[in-house]
Design brief:
- The complex is a heterodimer of chains A (270) and B (494).
- Chain A is of the alpha/beta class and 270 residues long.
- In chain A, 34% of the residues lie in helices and 26% in strands.
- Chain A has a seven-stranded mixed sheet with strand order 1-11-10-4-9-8-7, sandwiched between helices. In chain A, strands 3-2-5-6 form a four-stranded antiparallel sheet, with helices on one face.
- The longest helix of chain A has 14 residues.
- Chain A starts with 12 loop residues before the first strand and ends in a 5-residue tail after the last helix.
- Chain B is an all-alpha fold and 494 residues long.
- Chain B has three domains: 186 residues, no CATH class; 41 residues; 235 residues, MetI-like (MetI-like fold).
- The longest helix of chain B is centred in the middle third of the chain and has 39 residues.
- Classes of the chains: A alpha/beta (270), B mainly alpha (494).
- The interface between A and B is medium-sized, with 26 and 20 residues.
Chain lengths: 270, 494
């Protein structure tokens, strides 16, 4: 099965069209130096929904996710071609300020990475940088609102000025989500947000995703197919640099079309 | 034979033992080497170790003890008149005997006869002295007969001793070889023995390093205690006047004791170090930030070693630079703008020393900044922070404890620095707040107290040890604290 030749991009199976997409990608390729990591990805991500990116390790799903807030810019040898638009605006437009983009597109990482600062300062970091608040009252309000949305407020409201690194792993991850929410993004990218968490913390984060879906467009990279099924409206399957199949989660998991998707979902490789 | 020759002989014996045992070990299993407990080479090393190690150890111990033993044997046979002399004179006589003993074996037969006649009184003693002088033995006065005869004794003792140790070493080597050779069996755990010897060697090496440190501390400590028996510690630690009255003659004339106040020296040391840090911390830190966050791998690969070359310049060269170039430059610049800056001043020494410790700050800070996890930077970028915001608000605060540690290591370097301040800070023990005036430091005073023409037992000299110990204590505390901080910081992200 490993010998299977990757089909060209045009043959990617798109199972259901997306009306009024939030994020659109056209022929997105990524190169790390000489090596091409992503081949002609075309994907329309629906707004106010959860879209899961699944696939075996090294398939390019994280690489694709990192294109959407231009995080790949921080890797000197990375080069992105093609077109990605958010609300119709080309995010690789040279006139576009990457700082503004990243304020609009929040990101949550695989390993919780709270700053070595207090819980309050962790949340206030983004708003302070972007001047989102006028005074202390505003800031207090924004911090508590973000923590509430991330479902962390009740657990930390009495110790806002203790270090964020002192929280448990699950709490740290929700702190990072709250931190992302605080800059008022409309897209949130999550790169395997639960891979470092225990099942209970995972359940809480998943619950949170389902809640946040009402107001945010969420894209999540995950290795857990169960998780994709629990939280995602749409699922895209990636395989060695190609987006192979994309559609409603139910379709992908119950009736995969491509042989590679079938093999992966029914656990025949990887 | 000399120790050196014995060592060479033992090495040759060990090499032979190695080969012989190799053949024997192979023979015991009829060439099926895999049946041996250890690899073949270990059997060779096993025998070689048994051959050389005991013999070599005893040779070294013998060689170390030999002069003392011979000296006491010679001393015992000296005439009563010499025995009853004070220690200093007796040791002088023994020194003369040792010189004669050096010269005697070099004499030809005829020359020896002359010396022998002189000893028995048939020829003038000056003849003997001249002959010995030709052989490189310089005696202050004509030797007494007992000196010559004791010289004979010493030569004989020495020769006997060499023969004995050569015999003992050879015997031990043979015994060691025999024991190991006949104990070679397929199940002999040769590897374990060899590895224990290797382990022992490593332990011995580290013990030497530690013991040396302890030895240094104790030698300084004893002299310091000696000093404090003459000058009360309170006067030393809290005295504000440094005036050691350089010669004891001066002290007697003026009728006053010297004053050994530490405070002006400590102040000078700290003041100069402070100026040095004022120079080194910003420059070093900014350089480190540039190197670790902005510079590309090529530039970094080039610039980092170049910056570290600064640390490789001998400090005396920095001192010359301060004395010849920088001090006069500062003075002339001061003149231009109406400031009265001495060529040797706190500023001169501090700035040059600051340049010297830049690499300490920059190199360590660079490592520490680089070890801040990339995840933190990405978290900050992901929130829309720019690179400089990320560095200012996330990377530096995270690296701060480590940077503090680096600065403290640099500070302890600055406090212990000697050559720059000897040349550029001046020698006047001023208690001043004015950075344009000369001050002096603890290290400068250690140098000047020990390089004077003073009797060793005077407080004027001994104070150097008290100063040294104080300096050691200060830098030790700084180093321990800095290492503690750096280590604590490392754990945080491991």
């Amino acid at each position: 099965m490993d010998q299977q030749v990757a089909t060209p991009a045009s043959s990617a199976i798109i199972r259901s069209a997306v009306d009024d997409p939030k994020v659109t990608s056209k022929d997105v390729c990524v190169f790390y130096g000489e090596k091409q990591a992503l081949f002609d990805v075309n994907l329309d991500v629906p707004r106010n929904a959860v879209t899961a990116l699944i696939g075996p390790s090294g398939c390019g799903k994280s690489t694709y996710l990192r294109c959407i807030n231009r995080m790949n810019d921080t890797i000197p040898i990375a080069r992105v071609t093609g077109e990605i638009k958010i609300d119709g605006q080309d995010i690789y437009d040279p006139d576009l300020d990457v700082v503004e983009l990243r304020a609009r597109v929040g990101m949550v990482f695989q390993k919780p990475n709270p700053f070595p600062k207090s819980i309050f300062d962790n949340i206030a970091y983004g708003p302070r940088i972007h001047g989102l608040v006028r005074d202390k009252t505003d800031l207090d309000e924004l911090v508590s609102e973000s923590l509430e949305r991330a479902g962390l407020w009740n657990e930390v409201k009495d110790r806002l000025h203790e270090p964020g690194t002192g929280l448990s792993g699950g709490q740290q991850q929700r702190l990072c989500i709250a931190r992302a929410i605080a800059t008022k993004p409309d897209v949130i990218l999550m790169d395997e947000p639960c891979s470092a968490l225990d099942p209970i913390a995972t359940a809480k984060v998943e619950e949170l995703m389902l809640e946040l879906r009402q107001n945010y467009t969420i894209m999540i990279v995950t290795h857990s197919m169960a998780q994709a099924q629990r939280v995602a409206d749409k699922t895209a399957f990636f395989h060695i640099g190609y987006m192979v199949e994309y559609g409603d989660t139910k379709q992908i998991f119950e009736d995969p079309q491509d042989k590679r998707t079938q093999d992966y979902i029914f656990g025949r490789f990887g | 034979m000399s120790t050196w020759l014995i060592t060479v002989g033992l090495l040759a014996a060990a090499a032979a033992a190695y080969l012989l045992s190799l053949f024997k070990a192979r023979a015991t299993v009829k060439g099926e080497v895999s049946k041996l407990h250890s690899r073949l080479g270990y059997y060779g090393s096993y025998a070689a170790i048994w051959t050389i190690l005991p013999a070599l150890l005893i040779t070294f111990i013998w060689t170390a003890a030999e002069p003392q033993v011979i000296r006491s044997l010679v001393e015992k046979d000296l005439p009563q008149s010499v025995q009853s002399q004070p220690d200093a004179l007796k040791s002088l006589a023994l020194g003369r005997i040792a010189s004669v003993a050096e010269g005697l074996p070099k004499l030809s037969e005829d020359e020896f006869k002359v010396v022998e006649k002189a000893r028995l009184g048939f020829a003038p003693m000056t003849d003997a002295q001249n002959i010995l002088q030709e052989k490189g033995v310089v005696l202050g006065s004509t030797p007494e007969p007992y000196v010559i005869s004791a010289g004979y004794d010493q030569v004989i003792y020495k020769q006997n001793s060499r023969w004995m140790i050569t015999g003992i070493a050879a015997l031990l080597a043979v015994l060691g070889f025999a024991y190991s050779y006949f104990s070679i069996r397929p199940r002999l755990k040769a590897r374990n023995t060899v590895e224990n010897v290797v382990l022992g060697t490593l332990i011995a090496a580290s013990t030497v390093a530690i013991l040396t440190t302890v030895g240094i501390v104790f030698s300084v400590l004893f002299e310091t205690i000696h000093f404090f028996s003459e000058v009360p510690p309170a006067e030393f630690f809290f005295g504000t006047v440094w005036d050691p009255r350089f010669t004891s003659v001066g002290r007697e004339l003026s009728g006053a004791e010297g004053q050994f106040g530490l405070i002006p020296l400590l102040w000078g040391t700290l003041f100069i170090s402070f100026v040095a840090l004022l120079v080194a911390v910003p420059i070093g830190l900014f350089a480190a930030i540039y190197m670790s966050e902005y510079a590309g791998p090529k530039l970094r690969g080039f610039a980092k070693p170049v910056l570290e070359i600064l640390a490789g310049i001998p400090t005396i060269v920095y001192g010359l630079f301060a004395l010849v170039t920088f001090g006069p430059f500062l003075r002339d610049t001061g003149d231009l703008i109406g400031l009265d800056i001495a060529a040797s001043s706190v500023l001169t020494a501090g700035i040059v020393m600051g340049i010297m410790i830049i690499p300490f700050v920059s190199s360590l800070s660079d490592d520490i900044i680089s070890s801040v996890p990339q995840a933190l930077r990405e978290g900050s970028y992901g929130l829309g922070a720019t690179k400089s915001e990320t560095i200012k608000k996330v990377v530096l605060p995270a690296a701060l404890p480590g940077i503090v540690g680096a600065v403290m290591l640099a500070a302890s370097r600055a406090i212990g620095e000697t050559m720059i301040v000897v040349l550029a800070a001046g020698i006047a023990a001023n208690l001043t707040l004015n950075p344009f005036e000369p001050v002096t430091t603890i290290t400068v005073k250690i140098v000047s107290q020990l390089t004077g023409d003073l009797e060793f037992n005077s407080p004027q000299t001994l104070v150097a040890f008290a100063l040294g110990l104080t300096l050691f204590a200060i830098t030790l505390v700084l180093n321990i604290y800095a290492l503690y901080i750096v280590r604590k910081y490392r754990e945080q992200y491991d």
